[in-house]
Amino acid sequence: MNIVLIAVILLGVIGGVSAIILYIVARQFKIVEDVRIDQVEELLPAANCGGCGYPGCRGFAEACVKADSLSGLNCPVGGDKVMAAVATFLGKTVMASAPKVAVVRCNGSCLNRKRTNIYDGAGNCAVESSLYAGDTDCSYGCLGHGDCVVSCAFDAMRMNPDTLLPEVIEEKCTACGACVRACPKFIIELRKKGPRSRRIYVDCVNKDNGSIARSACDVACISCAKCQKICPFDAISISNNLAYIDYNMCRLCRKCVDVCPTSAIKEVNFPLKKKSEEVAAE
């Protein structure tokens, strides 16, 4: 018999046996994926930012389909509108979540926090943070290289050329948390936007003793506890020489703002106080 013919027959037999084996293996290990995952993914904004806590919109869609309840699941980019659409499609209920926004908890500008040395390394916060405390006496403050700005996929952050601090563009911020994860100093936090986008928070993360913190930065929190004592809603706690305002308990009365001796408490989007109120506060 012709050698070529024998080779062709042999290869055909080997191919047929291999195909049968592959078919059996494929049937044995077949994974049936819920078709609803694709449909839920189409309802999502396709930002793939990871702000939901899952690896992209696909992972979040899978979590929504498999979950018994959508409680605890939230798409920060799409917000309540997208989550309502997902809930309607899956026939599940979802609780409306308060919108959040990123805040930079450092007011150590060049005027408030003097530079005491010169950093001559790579212009990157993560690199500088791994090498030393920073170029000021405050080892907790912003390093000013803009890792958070680079990490933002929505162009919602920028570096202020005068203060050398990052600023959040509230209208663009989706509270995805990318900037929070990018900051090696942990000075960026996601907080509730608040009614009419008004919010109050301690604009400092310095945990040093009051005198040390004040010598490093003019507007540092010195843990004097005046804000805690005057708050009628028990929204302020002090831990590790640093005051913190719980946005779930704060009622935006602004009493803490008036008594802070270093102006370390920041109020956002509030109207100017009337003159009579200022006199009463004095």
What does this molecule look like?
- By secondary structure, the protein is of the alpha+beta class.
- The chain contains 11 helices and 8 strands.
- β2 and β3 form a beta hairpin.
- α2 (36-43) packs across α3 (56-66).
- It starts with a helix and ends with a helix.
Write a compact overview of the structure shown.
The protein is an alpha+beta fold and about 280 residues long. It is built from 11 helices and 8 strands.
Topology at a glance:
Elements: H1 3-28, H2 36-43, H3 56-66, H4 79-90, E1 100-104, H5 125-131, H6 147-151, E2 157-159, E3 166-168, H7 178-182, E4 188-192, E5 199-202, H8 210-216, H9 226-230, E6 236-239, E7 242-245, H10 255-259, E8 265-268, H11 275-281
Antiparallel strand pairs: 1-4, 2-3, 5-8, 6-7
Helix pairs in contact: 2-3
| Secondary structure tally: strands | 8
User: Roughly what is the average pLDDT, rounded to an integer?
Assistant: 89
Query: Strand count, sense and closure of the main sheet?
Result: 2 strands, antiparallel
Instruction: State the share of residues found in helices, binned by percent.
Output: 25-40%
Q: Report the span from N to C terminus.
A: 111 Å
Question: Which class do the helix and strand fractions yield?
Answer: alpha+beta
Strands of the widest sheet, in order across it, are 1-4
- Tell me the strand percentage band: 5-15%
